[in-house]
Amino acid sequence: MQLFPAISPYKTEMFDVSDGHQLYLEQTGNPDGIPILFLHGGPGAGISATYRQFFDPEHYRIIGFDQRGCGKSLPFGSLEHNTSQLLVQDVLAIQSHLKIGKWVLFGGSWGSTLALLVAIEQPQNIIGLILRGIFLAREEDYSWYLDKKGGAAQLFPEFYNEFLKPIKSQLTGQSIADAYYDIFTSNNEVRKMAAIKAWFLWEARISRLHIQINEEQLIPDVHRAISLALLECHYIKHQCFIPENHILNNTVKIKDLPINIIHGRYDTVCKVESAYSLHQALDNSKLSIIPEAGHSAGEKNTTKALCRATRDMLKFCKEQS
After folding, report:
1. Among the listed residues 91, 141, 121, 123, the one whose alpha carbon sits nearest the alpha carbon of residue 263
2. Which of 77, 195, 284, 319, CA to CA, is 20 to 30 A from 20?
């Protein structure tokens, strides 16, 4: 089961939210279909055209947007007024703006975190969730991704050493996120761009189980690399602006929602334990651990599982109607 055919949006707009931010918002597929919101990862990755192909355009009203500070949203790269709480409020504002009563949330990586935060905030407005590459924003999740003794560093020590090079002189008494943040918010543009490249490359190198592309192609879009590095560091430095274990402590609020959890067995960015722990906390959830897959949604078996999940959600919606 491969991706659905490529399709262009039937409507695009810039949507004003709070604090001077404008979000790029687009809709694709069937305007009268089941509303489904795509929540991109990062934070800071933005949307790309391929996300629309996870959904049957004849039956879904596909909604996507660039979160604050990335993609086509403005101001680009802004860290001010950029928190999880504000992103949740943006999602709710989009729902109100589009006059949607209930919708499906589809999110991967950081998008899974945001989807869970939105669902916990307003479960009554959610039909169901499709989540990939679960990130629960706990201290152990940050450590897995960034720390020397974390899983990613242990599996990819040579790439991790490259990741540390821009900040080696600053690590005494500082966390990795703090050291990078100091560079990202400095006025030294040369040093800043080198750090952005190193941060982006670290994630790109460990995101797939099999990387068969030239390393020079890992950063095809400098614009995207800038926003992803800046915003990802910003959110990790501030523990994603949520209390420790916030999501697992609030799963009771979403226990009745149908939730399809998909996670690569060899995901090095977000550890598979996160998906398992979330599933254990939600009796109404389904967990698919995908063999021979890492973190990326673009890996063959993960793509198949995601397309299958959107078809299953359609069947559920028809049965409920």
Report:
1. 141
2. 195
Task: Locate the domains of the chain by residue range.
Answer: 11-138+243-320, 140-240
Give the gyration radius of the chain's Cα atoms: 19
- Residues with a known catalytic role: 109, 267, 295
Closest-CA residue to 314 (of 130, 109, 124) = 130
**309 phi, psi to nearest 5 deg:** -65, -40
> Which pair of structure tokens corresponds to residue 165?
């090079």
Over range 161-179, report the average pLDDT.
Answer: 89
Closest CA to 26 of 2, 42, 46, 56: 46
State pTM to two decimals.
0.96
Listed in order, strand segments (DSSP E) in the chain are: 11-16, 22-29, 34-39, 60-65, 103-108, 126-132, 259-264, 285-290
Q: 281, 261 in Cβ contact below 8 A?
A: no
Show the CA angle centred on residue 53, arms to residues 27 and 269, nearest 5°: 105
Contact 18, 86 (CB under 8 A): yes
Say if residues 117 and 247 touch (Cβ distance below 8 Å): yes
Q: How far, in whole angstroms, is CA 318 from its chain's centroid? A: 28
Q: Which one-letter DSSP state was computed for residue 74? A: B
CA atoms of 143 and 226, how far apart (whole Å)? 22
- At residue 50 the predicted structure's pLDDT band, cuts being 50, 70 and 90, is very high
Q: For the purposes of burial, counting CB atoms within 10 Å of the CB of 318, is it exposed (0-12), middle (13-18) or buried (19 or more)? A: exposed
